Amino acid sequence: MNVLIVHAHHEPQSFNAAMKDLAVATLTAAGHDVVVSDLYAMGFNPVAGPADFGQRANPDYLVYALEQRNAVATDSFAPDIAAELDKLRRADFILLNFPIYWFGMPAILKGWIDRVFVSGLCYGGRRIYNRGGLAGKRAMLAFSLGGRKHMFGPGAIHGELETLLRPIEQGMLAYVGLTVLPHFAAFHVPYIGDEARGACLEGYRRHLLGLDGHAPRVFQSVEHFDEQLRPNTGA
Predict the structure, then answer these.
(1) Which of 19, 153, 190, 222 is the most exposed place for a label (fewest CB within 10 A)?
(2) Which pTM does this prediction carry?
(3) Fold topology of 2-224
(4) In angstroms, rounded to a whole number, what is the distance separating the alpha carbons of residues 91 and 203?
(5) Of the candidates 136, 134, 144, which has an alpha carbon nearest to the alpha carbon of residue 172?
(6) H or E segment at 35?
(7) What is the distance between the alpha carbons of residues 127 and 113, in angstroms, rounded to a whole number?
(8) 105 has pLDDT over 80
């Protein structure tokens, strides 16, 4: 399969970088074609704006999603967006690799989502969830965080990890039709030693080798809602 790894960490010697390198090596050795978008190394611009479009449907007032639709129809995205869209179109599996910052992803990765998950191709109208534009592709999160594992879960101080990740796994990945595989979390990594880091990386390697055996997360199906996307009660 064609794999796109979107890597968002500023330090090449970080544990996140080691996770990215391990994913490249493991998936390549398994026979997959792997492409990496290293956002910090690329100097990727995370700020959506008028320069994202070579031509505008409305040059006087920017409605970003509508201009995305126009750019899809006219093939007029800025070169950096067009390059990422080419990778996204080819990919069968998208792996987002990043550290958790403030219960979310780094700004540079959120900016990649903002600018690359474009309306008119990835989503729009009822083209969401199981009907999304990226339906048929799979995605997964691999991330590090400073908290310990016991800090996440029912009744834990930070709450359930699935709740923290919902804006990403549902609101970004599943929303555009991606089948979301179970994430991999590396806990407490700024504070653990080499032996624990090695064990964590080995766990990640096994997680990657078992991709086809992971049951995907279950999210919304458009068929359960009416034309106005209200719950379909069958009445």
Answers:
(1) 190
(2) 0.94
(3) Rossmann fold (3.40.50)
(4) 24
(5) 134
(6) strand 33-38
(7) 17
(8) yes
